[in-house]
Amino acid sequence: MITPGSRIGILGGGQLGRMMAIAARRLGYGVIGLDPDPACPLAAVADEMVVAAYGEAAAVAHLAARVAVLTVEFENVPAESLAAAQGRTRLAPGPQVLHAARHRLREKDLARHAGLTTTAYAAIHGPEDLDAALAVTGLPAILKTCELGYDGKGQRLLRSRDEAHAALSVLRPLPLIAEAVVPFRAECSVIIHRSPSGACAIHPVFENRHHRHILDVTLVPAALASATVAAAETGIRALAAALDLHGTLCAEFFVVGSGADERLVFNEMAPRPHNSGHVTIDASRCCQFENHIRAITDLPLGDTSLLLGGGAMVNLLGEVWASGEPDWANALTNAAIKVHLYGKGEPRSGRKMGHLNLAAADPAEAAKRLIAAREALRASP
Amino acid sequence: MITPGSRIGILGGGQLGRMMAIAARRLGYGVIGLDPDPACPLAAVADEMVVAAYGEAAAVAHLAARVAVLTVEFENVPAESLAAAQGRTRLAPGPQVLHAARHRLREKDLARHAGLTTTAYAAIHGPEDLDAALAVTGLPAILKTCELGYDGKGQRLLRSRDEAHAALSVLRPLPLIAEAVVPFRAECSVIIHRSPSGACAIHPVFENRHHRHILDVTLVPAALASATVAAAETGIRALAAALDLHGTLCAEFFVVGSGADERLVFNEMAPRPHNSGHVTIDASRCCQFENHIRAITDLPLGDTSLLLGGGAMVNLLGEVWASGEPDWANALTNAAIKVHLYGKGEPRSGRKMGHLNLAAADPAEAAKRLIAAREALRASP
Question: Under a CB-based contact definition with an 8 Å cutoff, are residues B30 and A44 in contact?
Fold first, then answer.
């Protein structure tokens, strides 16, 4: 166990790093972060920041040498940086987890081997692979880069072989992955925390609604059959065990069919707290950030049950600031709504600036109220 | 309204300042603290610390000039420092609140004028006042200094006139206050937040158990008749209005009698978040620290209702560390228990190092579990 009072290192200084650090603080841990931006959201709550690019192996090694455990807020850490940290501190998650999670082909292969249903997919190393791949996926399909894609970046919808050839000449680096388009009726995510001892805690399943490829609204628990929830839990447990995960893993699924035909199709995963879990800060006994810290330090994991039986979250993107300072007084007339802001300076369009949470027995009703509150924010005072 | 993104100043860098700052961070505010100790608990979560004594008026003025509002984590701020801050920023609470709250005679007079029942008390400016004072209080009585007393410091129990004379020659400065000993059956506290607009939010009443004059266990809600709770709320509202409070006020009461004879006797107050309110971090929708920040910035106040209907808290003093690192794994086998540590270096005897919280419908049962968990902490692994 890494006892409270020890120092935790965090690679990446965005809102996830910041909320991890706040949880670490409350448990009495010290925090040193690494981020190229000295004014990143994490900086405000860290003891100290190493200001460096994630690829500066020497800086990562320097950080690693000063902390009891090193964790990450994103999966795209260059392999050389991880190699530089290894041997100097514990990595949680370990490099094998990041290796799998940052690459769409590897994560899909892993999920399939762990017994999960995935979308039909195929690797494309060059134009010669295209026809075989489209035979697997059918059309329409989606062509994606294997690395560095997020929030809809690095992907193209293919409605024809011509579009496929065009996309193939644009998306880089190779290999790419072609995926079948799944006619889903909903999207959901499952978040698990796993300790070095193998102990696990799983949050109730989240239902996620996206807008322009960015998470917009989360409801918890997702309205799913109990057999579907059980399958999701079995799947994420198998995935976490296969990865020998120390920390947090979020898997995103498509919900296909309904009633007795309802099933989940694995889409992708992230080896860290996830935007869909932000609702747990106010809706759950022990939120995803505190449980992440408990998992990487090997403290016993906290209870993931929902205090009021449910809740919802809406993201606040930079657009909310488009016509000036949001009208906080107007938006917060419902005293039960909680605001979380990440301390980012510039409210650029599409930038995640904060979120609103509401714990409630009826997640759909909570989501409605949050959406109304977000609308009220835009009405300048 | 002071909008998120603005800077809040906090005088005092202990655990109260730290937990205020964490709440401020989550709402997107910047934080600058002032404390003589550069390694104080607040320093870890502040943007910046002014390292100075509270009495250094120039340092306080410098801080005040850089923040949108200045708040305090304790009431004993020298008047010259407050004067130096005034005109440079908003003070919340205002100097009139601190002036009343840091002086036992003034706070009792104020409570009485606000319509609250207080203990029988009398001012003692010298030996010539003693007999008249004891005629008011009876014996046994308690003799206290008017300023700078806390956690049982600066007071003596008087069982006889001889003891009264002896105590009077020791306790300084004059005047002192003599108070009747109240045969209470329980102690409780009430916490109110009040905005510059006059809006108020009151937490459910806390029941407090002390050990060696230091808060040991809090249960919420206190087991009181509804008429008693209503009287407590009316009383604290009147007190906050009389003070024109901007911020948080905690009033401590003795519970006397039971059934139809149950009533509350005002003991003392503190114009800030209070140890008895720490349970609200996990048991309430919006905790005392977030509501303090909302009150001083004039954001709408948050809902103070209890998520599961109740909860309990136990303090972790330095004694828990007496035989080495506490056994966290043993203590946290109940996954619902939450740990809060303040990041203090030296676990000295009597020093408040942290606390444990448990939200539960049955506060007595929750308190039992927390006391057992605290015992388990002492059993070294």
Answer: yes
User: What pTM was estimated for this model as a whole?
Assistant: 0.96
| Residue A328 contacts B, CB cutoff 8 Å | yes
pLDDT class of B381 with cuts at 50, 70, 90: low
> Could you read off the pLDDT of A13-52 as tens digits, one per residue?
999 999 999 999 999 999 999 999 999 999 999 999 999 9
Q: How far apart are CA A139 and CA A137, in angstroms?
A: 7
- Kindly indicate the confidence band of residue B151, based on its pLDDT and cuts at 50, 70 and 90: low
Residue A195 to residue A203: CA distance in whole angstroms: 15
Question: CA of B302: which chain A residue's CA is closest?
Answer: A335
pLDDT band at B154 (very low <50, low <70, confident <90, very high): confident
A163 in Cβ contact with A198 (< 8 Å): no
With tokens 């330090």, the residue in question is A297
Two structure tokens written together for B246 = 């901007």
Query: Residue B148: its pLDDT value, please?
Result: 75
Residue A289 sits at the chain B interface (C-beta within 8 Å):
no
> What six digits make up the tokens of A114?
């762990």
pLDDT of residue A150: 62
Q: Measure Cα distances from A331 to A131, B7, B201 in Å.
A: 52, 21, 18
Chain A (290-309) residues lying within 8 Å, Cβ to Cβ, of chain B: 290, 299-303, 307-308
- Could you tell me the CA-to-CA distances from B341 to A34, A47, A248, B338 in Å, in that order? 24, 16, 23, 10
Shortest distance, CA B152 to any CA of chain A (angstroms): 28
Residue B19, pLDDT above cutoff 90:
yes
The answer to whether the CB of A63 falls within 8 A of the CB of A9 is yes
CB within 8 Å: A335 and B303: yes
Helix axis angle, A15-26 to A288-297, nearest 10°: 70
Q: How far from A186 is each of A208, A255, A265, B350, CA to CA, in Å?
A: 7, 5, 11, 54
| Residues A350, A354, A358: CA angle, nearest 5 degrees | 125
The pLDDT value recorded for residue B304 is 98
Residues B187, B171 contacting (CB under 8 angstroms)? no
B62/chain A closest Cα distance in angstroms: 21
**Integer Cα distance of A249 and A291 in angstroms:** 11
Could you give the C-alpha distances from B31 to A347, B18, B23, B69, B71, in angstroms and in order?
20, 10, 10, 10, 11
Q: Do B333 and A22 touch (CB under 8 A)?
A: no
